[in-house]
Amino acid sequence: MNNTPPTTLGLIRHARTLWNEERRIQGRLNSRLSTVGRQMARMWGRQLADCPWDRILASDLGRARETVELVNTTLDLEVDFDGRLREQDWGRWSGLTFPELSNRFRDRVQAEGKKGWDFRPPGGESRREVLARTMAALEEAGGRWPGQRILVVCHEGNIKCVLYHLLARKFLPDEPRLLRGYGLHMLEYRRDKLVLRQANALFLDTPTP
Fold it and tell me: Which residue ranges are tagged as binding site for substrate?
């Protein structure tokens, strides 16, 4: 019998960036948090202080680091960064706005979308590859810090891949939307396996316009 205590992982994406507001694809490129994004991260720190976290694990991209810095002004936790938690590499589509992408590459985008897990931007990586490295990072964290509660700050692409995998989704356009706004999603690592406890367990605060 495995008596190792389970590890709890709470996944959130980084706060809003300038490129998010421009509807511009970031991928492995970076954009700083916007004024609203910085407000969001500070609010999240106060909101998440109601949960007994032990540490933070985060993507090493700048927007995740900036979010962690602001959240952690309240939480004051030890932080580890892992490059495996970076956003999906969107290759040659990185830096384009979504309207530009649709106007210039409509047929290619539609064809890739029908591939589900095998969606791959030109010169980028597939969702399967994102899933593999993200799961490896989370499983390693679960084994490294048994019994702890870890706040994971990463990206929408990572979170979608992990949750869709655990829910056996096909990642196709006609599936109902799962992630809504900025949420906290709870996982548990036990008996060498990641399981989903609750998607959208908490909706994170956003500034009132």
Answer: 13-20, 63
